[in-house]
User: What shape does this take?
Amino acid sequence: MKHFRMLCVLALGCLTLVVVGVAHANIGAPHAKAKRQSHFCTRHPNAPRCNPAPTPASTATSTPTAPSSPTSTSTPTTPSSPTSTSTPTTPSSPTSSSTPTTPSSPTSTTTPTATATPSQSGTCQDANAKYIWNNWQNGPVGAYYADADWWATNGYTFAQKTVICDYNSWYVQATADNSKGDGAVKSYPNVHRDFHDWGTGHEPAISSFNTMTSQFAHTSPGVGIYDVAYDIWLNGVADSNSTELMIWTDNHNQVPSGSKVGQVTLSGHTWDVWSSDANHYIAFVPANGASITSGTLDLLGFYKYLISGGRLPASSTVGQVDYGVEIVSTDGKPARWDFTNFNVSSS
Assistant: This one.
């Protein structure tokens, strides 16, 4: 009988471990729009705290020919030696060091259908490009920084070609699917301006600005799942205390993280306000499915609205202002986004 009781206890313990393990395995991954601090070094390789040692400059070409087939890739590993840069707080004289090299040996995924890059008048053309990237790379563009920026591609069909003519003239052509049905953002190709000083860590306080505005313009394919958006980092760039503030200008079948907490009219447009992670993630989304393809935003007005509503500390600082597209899916077919204007002005 004693042995029988011991066997029962052991069996019960094993059953408990199995149940706990299954329950843990069934916990879903956090929403793809949640704060993405874990991807910081992939998305922001110029941060000294990732890997301070500089690397040789990545290859760029001024007169490349369009590749016949986009490069297939999945989630690349974090670059072994990303570039450390020191970015000024004004756009007149940025300092950039060498550009990080492509992450080594990424796992390939399903190869998408090859397609030629369409020619579009008045937009960035391959023959005039400063950079053409068929994999994950980034580099300085005047006072700004361009980034092909992808991470969660493993297990999906994914390829991306990023062509940079200037900070206000570039395009991205991507092929992606949502085969797992999880809505994961695969990439966020963007151009950004850093206010964060990567050498000292200093950031200007919001209260120190009299104005901060940004102009933008883009065209979108209208297929799949994506959002064209500002991604603004306040109180540091993706550290434990920072706030990720997104301003979506064009939303196609995407949903922000968290829940809707309000509605406000700013810069002449009405926005639904979403929040999660104790206001460390906040998104402004055009109300009633509106799409804003060009315009000027009073960024300082957005900051002040959040401060007045208690969602942002009055002592907050500005770290980085990005503008690009979060790509979830193109329904497995090539799709292209063109960016024909972007700047950030402040005083």
User: Anything to note?
Assistant: The chain has one domain: 35-346. The CA atoms of residues 102 and 138 lie 9 Å apart.
